[in-house]
Each structure stands twice: as structure tokens, then as C-alpha cells.
Design goal:
Strand content of chain B: over 45%
Number of domains of chain B: 1
Radius of gyration of chain A: 35 Å
Structural class of chain A: alpha+beta
Order of helices and strands of chain A: EEEHEEEHEEHHEHHEEEEEEEE
Helix content of chain B: under 10%
Shape of chain B: elongated
Number of strands of chain B: 10
Radius of gyration of chain B: 17 Å
Helix content of chain A: 25-40%
Order of helices and strands of chain B: EEEEEEEEEE
Oligomer: heterodimer
Chain lengths: 434, 144
């Protein structure tokens, strides 16, 4: 009996035609799913091969023959013009020259320029190309080099080289790589169970599987205690995020507001549009208030520092915490808590949603009614007792259990603020929970 | 053949009422889990048992999409030249990991089980026996 060990988390199934329910989410039989995946990748691969064949036949082979098989001769220019054809973003142009040349005593007269014939934007470039050729007349007998196909002498070009067009082959190659790779993966895993797939390719096991790494937490030494904890989201980034959301939302809504306002000013009010955009405008106003609130917190509340005497933590552990709060604040209350949150990520249609639920909050420290003066940070120490029955931290692809130290501040005449500092709790060092 | 034709038995401990999966066997991290499975040969209906897989694994339940992680995996397959005798009980044994522990959260739940998957013709029959790793009590929702 073959034996495998491993430790990677996978979502074991693909498309499902007959779903079954597990917990709040649906999973299902993989047979139809695997068939669907195989079909999807086959279509992708076939499209790539077809497109590549088209590029090779119509583009790469003619280009290669022009640069290697075609014979050189000289020609006279009899006339010139710019050929036009409609494109998605406007008219496309190609320079064309009527030339006369001889092959084995026979005279050919054709319109030609490049092979394969390529139209592109920019009329001025093409006109400049045409201007560089002089039409043959009694005073001018200028000859120009040209290259003709020995098998079909009427096929001729006035320019050679490869240019950027061979890069077109990269587009179908992407389809071929994705489709072929996906098909190979699907075939290799055909008939394999979810457990077999999860076990395949796994060779080593971590000491604490599915518990987040704490190197980011212990890489910054503290000034009072051993480690300074990093903040989950810095106030600056939070402000930037709210600002971007505010600008994006209100930027779009303002276009429709302008149309509605103009319609009212011109005496031809668009009542449907006015009523329709009202809730969107209210959301936009809410975002503006949110931005102002975050701006006040970021600029008015100074840095919050939290240091800890030991890490990682275990159920039943006891350690010390150090809190430092800067700024010029009249504090109604400041509280430090140990908080546990469950976080679940799931797909709903085409959306990916994340839901979190607070399942534990232990207040560690609270002080009320005091002042913090600029240049003289408020500092406090408290004890941190990890509950003996605490669940450890967990990190999987779609499910997490996160522990954090949360500092909640209630400032007089200023918005309340909350700052989080993640910590990692491992299972009890004796192997089990207390 | 259906799931009840596969019987999974764990050694030693008697099932006890636990906080996670009701009446089940409870193990501590690092403890050895061992047992055996049997397949009712009379239920095969003359069809060949082409492969059997045994896994000790955890999976998630709850609000989020399912995560699944195999701790240990054994496979016997006639394609690989293995001899599969459904009449004979097959034993398995593994040292349980230190995490993740069984958990019955509000939107995140972690379940451990021994899963046996039998391949009979083009059908797959799956039976599993849950057990509890660790002894973490379920949380209570915090009032916001």
C-alpha cells in the first residue's frame, strides 16, 4: 500500500452539476466537473492551435518566404496611392505603389508595397513613405529594388524584414499554454479523489500545520518589552483606501448629478434620473463623511504602539503588554482587549465574499478620563492571560481564525478609533488544550 | 454497494460525548490513531474492487468554501499491482498532528475523520468516521 504524507490545503472539486451540501456551503460530485474542465481546456487549446495555424499560414510563412525565397530585381514606380479600410478605432491606411518590373523577359505591372498587406493607423506616415518614391517620367528614371516570388512573379514587395508581426504568434501561444497545461493537469488527475489530489505532491509537514507564520510579528524588537507588534492596517493606508473609494464612487455619480442638475436648470427636468440617483448620492455623501472621520483620526490621534513580552502565544500563557498612545488628546476612555475573530471566504455567483464574526473579547486594560499631552505619550502596562480553552490561530485558503490585540479609544470631541495588532496563538505546548 | 458496506473501526478508546461531533473518539495531538476497515465482499455484486484509499484528514464546514487537508493517505490499486482482498480487514495507523484542532465555531468549523474510498467499477463508495482532535470548546458569540 502506498503511503503519502502532506499538508497543503486544497479545494478539492471543480465545476459541479449535482451539488451536495456541507455546512452552509455546497460542494458536489467531481465527475461532471472534471468533464467540464476537460471540455473547457480542450476548447481553449483548439482555439489556440487554430489561431496559431492561421498566423503561421497567413503571416509567418509569407514573411519567411519574402525574406528567404523571393528573388531581387529592380522596378520603376508608375503611380502611388493610399489604400484605406475601416478599422474599429477609425480608418486604417496602407501605402501602395504601381510598379513595373521584368522577370525572364516578361513585363509585370502591379500595385504593391509589403507582404502580407498590412493596414494601420496614421495617414501621415504612409504619405511620407509614398513621398520617398519618385514617379517615373521622361526626366527621372529612378529604379528601386523589389522582391518577387519565383513561383508567382506577380507577387512582389518593395520592403523586406520581419518587423513586429511575428509577435502575433504569442497570442495563440498563450491559449495553447493555458489550454494544454489545463488539459494535461485534468488528464493527470482524472479519476483521482479529492484526498489523492490533496496528498499528491506533498512531501513535508510543518510542525504546526495551518497555523500562520509569526515571523512578521517577531521581527521588530520593542523598547520596553521583547517585541513591538505590527498594526493590522496603518491609519495612513486606511485613509488612502477610503479616499480612493470616495473619489471613485463620487466621480461616477457626479456625471449623472451634472446631467440631472442641468436638466432642471434648463427647465426640462429629468425626474426619473433625479430619483434614481438619489440613493447613490446619499452613499457618496456617506463616503465623504467616512473620509472626514478617517482624516480626523489619522491626523488627530497620534501613533499607537503595543509591545509584548513573548511570542508566539499558547492557551494558558501569561505575558505582559505595553501600550503607548501619542497625540494631544482629551481621552474619555482607552481600552485594550484580546479579540478572536472567525473569518470565512466564499463564492456567491461571480463574487467572492468574506464574512467575519467576533467570537471572543477579553478586556485587558481600561482607563477613563485623562489627558494626553503633545510630546508626552500616555504609557501603560497590563497583563495578558491567554484563555486556557482558546482555539489556536488558523489560516487556510477560505477559513481563518485570527487573534489580535485591539486598542479602542474614545476621545472627547473627536471620532472614536480602533487599532488592531495581530498575534498568533498556537496549540498548548504540551500538545493539547488545557 | 453503499457506504454502510464499509466499516471503519478505531482501536482502543470508546466513543465519548464531545463538544464537536457528538459521541465520538477524542484524541490529543501527537497521539497515535490506529484502526482497521472492512468491506462487505458480498455487496460488490461480482464487480472488481479496483482501488481503496484511506485518508486521515480534516475539512472545514460553515460559511466559507470548503478547505480540505490530508494528514495521511494510503492507496491500494490493482493497476499498481496491489492485491486487494475485501475479505481481509486492513489496518492503518498514524501519529496525529499538532494542528488544526477540532473546532465548532460560529462560521468556521474544523472536522477530523478517517475516510475510506472504494472504487468499484466506475463507482466510488465513501465511508468516513469522525473523531475529535484536541478539546477546544465551542465559542459563544460576542455581543457587539
Amino acid at each position: 500500500m502506498r503511503r503519502y504524507r502532506g499538508g497543503e490545503t486544497v479545494l478539492p472539486r471543480g465545476l459541479r452539476f449535482y451539488p451536495k451540501k456541507r455546512g452552509d456551503r455546497r460542494t458536489g460530485s467531481g465527475r461532471w466537473g472534471r468533464l467540464g474542465e476537460a471540455l473547457f481546456f480542450t476548447v481553449f487549446l483548439a482555439a489556440g492551435i487554430g489561431f496559431l495555424a492561421l498566423v503561421v499560414i497567413t503571416l509567418l510563412v509569407p514573411l519567411w518566404r519574402l525574406n528567404n525565397d523571393f528573388a531581387e530585381t529592380s522596378c520603376r514606380v508608375l503611380d502611388k496611392r493610399i489604400s484605406e479600410e475601416p478599422g474599429e478605432d477609425g480608418t486604417l491606411y496602407r501605402p501602395e505603389l504601381e510598379i513595373e518590373y521584368q522577370v525572364k523577359g516578361r513585363t509585370y505591372r502591379v500595385w504593391a508595397y509589403d507582404i502580407p498587406p498590412t493596414h494601420s493607423s496614421g495617414r501621415d506616415d504612409k504619405q511620407a513613405t509614398l513621398d520617398s518614391f519618385i514617379i517615373h517620367n521622361d526626366q527621372n528614371n529612378q529604379l528601386y529594388p523589389c522582391w518577387y516570388d519565383p513561383l508567382e512573379p506577380k507577387t512582389v514587395a518593395l520592403v523586406r524584414g520581419y518587423g513586429w508581426m511575428p509577435l502575433m504568434a504569442l497570442i495563440p501561444l498563450v491559449f495553447i499554454i493555458v489550454g494544454g497545461g489545463g488539459l494535461i493537469y485534468t488528464v493527470l488527475h482524472w479519476g483521482k479523489s479529492a484526498e489523492h489530489k490533496a496528498a499528491a505532491g506533498l512531501s513535508s509537514r510543518e510542525t504546526f500545520p495551518n497555523i500562520p507564520d509569526d515571523s512578521n510579528i517577531t521581527n521588530s524588537p520593542g523598547t520596553t518589552l521583547d517585541f513591538r507588534l505590527p498594526m493590522a492596517t496603518s491609519p495612513g493606508w486606511a485613509l488612502f483606501g477610503v479616499l480612493m473609494a470616495c473619489l471613485f464612487w463620487n466621480g461616477i455619480v457626479s456625471v449623472f448629478v451634472a446631467i440631472a442638475v442641468n436638466s432642471h436648470l434648463e427647465g426640462n427636468p429629468e425626474w426619473f434620473l433625479t430619483i434614481f440617483i438619489t440613493p447613490f448620492v446619499l452613499v457618496g455623501i456617506g463616503l465623504v463623511f467616512l473620509f472626514i472621520r478617517q482624516l480626523l483620526i489619522t491626523t488627530g490621534v497620534g501613533p499607537t504602539l503595543v509591545e509584548i513580552s513573548g511570542h508566539p502565544l499558547h492557551p494558558g500563557d501569561h505575558c505582559d503588554l505595553f501600550l503607548s498612545q501619542s497625540g494631544r488628546l482629551s481621552v474619555n476612555s482607552i481600552a485594550v482587549s484580546l479579540v478572536c475573530e472567525e473569518e470565512a471566504t466564499y463564492r456567491q455567483g461571480t463574487d467572492t465574499r468574506t464574512e467575519s464574526r467576533e467570537v471572543r473579547r477579553v478586556e485587558l486594560y481600561r482607563r477613563e478620563g485623562f489627558e494626553i499631552h503633545r510630546g508626552l505619550p500616555f504609557e501603560a502596562e497590563c497583563e495578558l492571560d491567554i484563555p486556557a480553552d482558546a482555539m489556536h490561530s488558523l489560516k487556510a485558503d477560505h477559513n481563518e481564525i485570527n487573534w489580535q490585540i485591539v486598542v479602542d479609544g474614545d476621545i472627547a470631541g473627536w471620532p472614536d478609533y480602533s487599532r488592531s495588532f495581530p498575534v498568533v496563538i498556537r496549540p498548548a505546548s504540551d500538545g493539547g488544550q488545557a | 454497494m453503499n457506504a454502510s458496506d464499509i466499516v471503519i473501526q478505531l482501536d482502543g478508546k470508546e466513543p465519548a460525548e464531545g463538544p464537536i461531533v457528538g459521541r465520538s473518539r477524542s484524541y490529543e495531538p501527537g497521539e497515535i490513531l490506529s484502526g482497521q476497515y472492512t468491506i462487505d465482499a458480498t455487496s460488490l455484486g461480482g464487480k472488481e474492487l479496483s482501488a481503496v484509499e484511506v485518508s486521515v484528514l480534516w475539512y472545514s464546514e460553515g460559511k466559507g468554501d470548503e478547505d480540505l487537508d490530508v494528514h495521511e493517505f494510503w492507496r491500494k490499486s490493482t493497476d499498481d499491482g496491489d492485491f486487494i482482498d475485501p475479505m481481509r480487514p486492513e489496518r492503518f495507523s498514524t501519529t496525529l498532528p499538532r494542528s488544526p484542532l477540532s473546532y465548532d465555531g460560529l462560521i468556521v468549523k474544523i472536522r477530523w475523520c478517517v475516510r475510506v474510498r472504494a472504487f468499484v467499477g466506475r463507482r466510488e463508495i465513501v465511508a468516513e468516521l469522525g473523531f475529535q482532535l484536541g478539546n477546544v470548546p465551542p465559542p459563544e458569540e460576542v455581543e457587539q
